[in-house]
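Final report, closing paragraph on structural work. Over the funding period we assembled a curated collection of sequence-structure pairs, and we close with a single example.
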Amino acid sequence: MRIFLYEFMTGGGLFGCDGVPLASLRAEGKAMISALATDCAAVENVELTVLRDARCADLPLPRCRVVDVHSASDERACLEQLAREMDAGMLIAPEIGQALAERVRWIEGVGGRLLSPNLKFVTLASNKIRTSQQLRKGGIQVPESGQLDVDARGFVDLPRDFPYPAIIKRIDGAGSVGMQFHSEPARCHLDPHAPWMIERFCPGITASVALISAPNVCLPLPPFLQKLDPETFQYLGGSRLMGDPLGGRATNLATEAIAILGPPTGYVGVDLVLGEDPSGKSDYVIEINPRITTSYIGHRALANDNVAEAIISIAYGGHGSLSFRDGSIQFAVDGHID
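Its predicted structure, as stored:
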């Protein structure tokens, strides 16, 4: 089986992205592609090809055929060529500026097969307001939110009739880029070229659950606590969410959310807040990540089996077999494991 992998930060996505605030995501991108490529290359009968930004020549990709990308046009041409030649591929890219959706569109446009979510799912999940609306219709609890109208200079007056405290974030955000916290209405300055939203701040435990899914399978992986910078909300890594009932609440809520939205094909992440009420009445789904996330680093460290092999198997109609060891684990965005 011939499979190709693409990760935006290391695969050529940064060509032509001057001025786009993505620097904070570079460490995560390198860690994810290194881990995923290592695992895919270890799967029996898999021939692996990885796209690599030619400026990242020091990125280790052992046991892989590497295709170097030298420009933005070269990136698209290489992706489309691999989509025509290979049996399937996996894409990792931020939702910001529709980067992920655009590349999925390239692949599907030439008839390529993806082992990661398709364009319909990616487009929905890349719009946090639309995702929230659909989840609410399906009975999932999500925080109140609304779109902000930012003027041409980037200024906006936050609504006075909104429940505060509140979070300001991009509708197409990833990695907490540009996120702000406000305890009361204020005049904000934001990137005028980006779409912005306001969302009620939900206190509680920040957690994430990743799932590997396909039309007839949804396999939840061990839930993790999220470590966030208290001022910028930048994602710093995670640790295992140990034991019930919190772990069970997180897994059940994430599984229900994915069932309403999809199910997609491949690995997806669900970000949650678990409130104080032990019944789960104050638990909220915050957003859906339609791609492999940094949690993959933690899952592969806990797994007794190859997580990438399970993704491939489930995408091709199998059930996938994964077991995980007991005990705690902590991981950073650069792939470091404690």
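Helices lie at 26-41, 72-85, 99-109, 119-125, 128-137, 246-261, 295-302, 307-315. The radius of gyration is 19 Å. We thank the funder for supporting this effort.
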